[in-house]
Amino acid sequence: MNTTTEQNTAAEPRARLRRFAFAAVAVPTLMVGLALPANAAELTPIAEALDATLADTLSSIGAALDALGLAA
Predict the structure, then answer these.
(1) Cβ atoms 25, 54 nearer than 8 A
(2) Residue 57: partners with Cβ closer than 8 Å, 6 or more residues away
(3) What is the dihedral of CA 49, 23, 16, 62, to 10 degrees?
(4) What CA–CA distance (Å, rounded) separates 61 from 31?
(5) 38 three-state secondary structure
């Protein structure tokens, strides 16, 4: 057996999960960054969406780690 292939196969879901988590946080963060000249009333809905997205992402990552038997 080739241990490199086994390691790559085992690491692939984690890498995909990291990319998904990065995208889930990066896109709303970019939206906030582009909206910096806006006032607080305009940023509140974006901040709430970012907060909800981040909470969902962290919850999904925790559930995935629990399913794999790893500590969150």
Answers:
(1) yes
(2) 20, 21, 24, 25
(3) -30
(4) 23
(5) coil
The predicted structure's pLDDT at residue 72: 54
In this prediction the pTM is 0.44
Band of residue 10 on the pLDDT scale cut at 50, 70, 90: low
User: What one-letter code names the amino acid at 52?
Assistant: A
- Token pair listed for 29: 């963060």
Q: What is the pLDDT of residues 24-47, one digit of tens each?
A: 888 878 877 776 666 777 778 888
Q: What is the Cα–Cα distance from 6 to 19, expressed in whole angstroms? A: 20
| Amino acid, res. 25 | V
> Which tokens sit at 40?
């607080």
